[in-house]
Specification:
Blueprint (H helix, E strand, L loop, with lengths): L1 E3 L15 H15 L6 E3 L12 H7 L1 E4 L6 H10 L3 E2 L8 E5 L2 E5 L7 E6 L2 E8 L6 E5 L1 E4 L9 H17 L4 H5 L11
Parallel strand pairs: 1-2, 4-5
Antiparallel strand pairs: 3-10, 5-6, 6-7, 7-8, 8-9
Helix pairs in contact: 1-2
Length: about 190
Amino acid sequence: TVLSFVHNDQSPYAEQSPDRRAAQLRLATLSHLARGLHYDFLVLPAGALARRVVPHEVVSEHGELVLVDQDLDRDAFTGRLSAAGYARTGLVEDPGTFSARGSLVDVWSPAAARPVRIELLGDAVLAIKEFDPETQRTGGELREAHFSLAREAPITTASLARAKEQVRALCDAIDMPTSKARTRRGTGWVGVA
């Protein structure tokens, strides 16, 4: 097994958004390493050694393993997927997305070649099947599926609190009252409630 770690060569101060797929490929490799899975080689450019990456604990904390016959609260599971950076969509056609319809939850982990469909009966996982994202037809059955982070900055209570504190500090630095920052929510500003 050869793992590849795609280098993030974009400056954090650039005005353009980073390549989402490249970030997901980095997270897939970090997830593989965090889970202690076997690999023969890790290929990465020298520049990647100088950049900070998502800490091992965060990658492990937001990884999700689903097994056939386990109990799974659908709403809690989709909430954890959202916090891990997955985007909720009507149809799962891209890595890092999920869809929940009745007793079916479709998820495409950035670490997987194909998306999976989780079939539930109440809270019990009846089946996990790979499916074709173009035709939406299921294929082979799996006994388990692992879902890694889909975003390099997962949304947690601590990260939201840290963001609010940073916005407050920035408001203080430019002498903007907190009440004024709260009123700018609809104008692209982040509220600091």
